[in-house]
């Protein structure tokens, strides 16, 4: 079900435990903790796209959702990073999956019959889709973190933010956070995936970043104060160095702040393991240093390299990362 991507993607993380056993999490120092017991929780997540035109998790025409969740659990993942879109967050919460597939045809540039064929295939593997709405999340998953993705505000930018509307973004965060109140397996929401500036954006010592991240955090907290608030840096979430000199206002986040960063072989890591490790420490790893105002849990939510005939540099990247 791989369709042409929407401009704005958002992500949820599903911890693979039964919803009845779902827990509220909080941050403390460099750790994520079970808020009721104080036990440390470590997230090992797989990425799963769900923000495309049909507004449901991809690949359900190939496998039942329960099989996918079981495969993830068997392979020692305990959560899923699942994308969603602001269009879905602000759209009709009762839109049936069948109607979503029909509506997706135009945006995907394919025929309605092609989309309905995909829908029929998905229902053949997942019968529950026939009566589901687009806000249904794959059964068998348990803890979810929702996250947004794309360019940096303002909305009238001619580059990567040309489809972005700040008010819709904040309303979407608030809406999905509120939605999570009735889904106890939802543990948090990230503000926006891979923030990157275009042109003159954020050329003011990251004042734009501080401003909009703070607004986003407030929107999430207004919708659901139980959720973790996951914050990534600039330049495609590769860089959080500026936090060293100017910390966010922690009062906005309470005990829910979690940092995230991305790390790819092609993202300027240097040619040796030593240079790679230094880069990770300089850009984000320092956030784990004890007794600093910026200290908080740090989540590596994306990494990768070319796995077909990897080069020597790519092999070095892998061995250094793991």
From TrEMBL:
<dbReference type="GO" id="GO:0004553">
    <property type="term" value="F:hydrolase activity, hydrolyzing O-glycosyl compounds"/>
</dbReference>
<dbReference type="Pfam" id="PF00150">
    <property type="entry name" value="Cellulase"/>
</dbReference>
<feature type="domain" description="Glycoside hydrolase family 5">
    <location>
        <begin position="64"/>
        <end position="315"/>
    </location>
</feature>
<feature type="signal peptide">
    <location>
        <begin position="1"/>
        <end position="22"/>
    </location>
</feature>
<comment type="similarity">
    <text>Belongs to the glycosyl hydrolase 5 (cellulase A) family.</text>
</comment>
<keyword id="KW-0732">Signal</keyword>
<keyword id="KW-0378">Hydrolase</keyword>
<dbReference type="GO" id="GO:0000272">
    <property type="term" value="P:polysaccharide catabolic process"/>
</dbReference>
<dbReference type="InterPro" id="IPR001547">
    <property type="entry name" value="Glyco_hydro_5"/>
</dbReference>
<dbReference type="InterPro" id="IPR017853">
    <property type="entry name" value="GH"/>
</dbReference>
<protein>
    <recommendedName>
        <fullName>Glycoside hydrolase family 5 domain-containing protein</fullName>
    </recommendedName>
</protein>
<keyword id="KW-0326">Glycosidase</keyword>
